[in-house]
Amino acid sequence: MGKVVFSLLLALPLVTLAASSDKKCILSGLWRNELGSNMTISAVNAEGGFTGSYFTAVTVTNKRILVSPLKGSQNLKGQRKQPTFGFTVSWTFSNAVTVFVGQCFMDDNREEMLKTMWLLRQEVRSPGADWKATRVGTNVFTRIK
Asked: In the chain, which ranges are continuous DSSP H helix?
């Protein structure tokens, strides 16, 4: 009896670890990035599509920041636990659009994070100004609880 109890106690952490590693990263919900921007993503539909809203904490314009719509797609192929996705934000307060691509990860603490890379394209007056029209960057989003 003592050996069985001891074996069960040794196996318990392994069972707990296996159960927690099965957690799937879910894209829908409320998210915040390291700059303080907030994003809401709706439920992902059967085709992988989703909508939502984005409220940026940063801008290069002097206009009032407004909530902007987002529309995207998650890759559902194979129903991965850490899916890839992409979405577009059409800014309501400027003549710019940003496209984000990324992946939903589980960190070492089993918390979800979205690691993204983005391209922002702003309108310019002429082809000669094209060189300054596109910016690139990265953001990491964590779930707002």
From this structure: 2-21
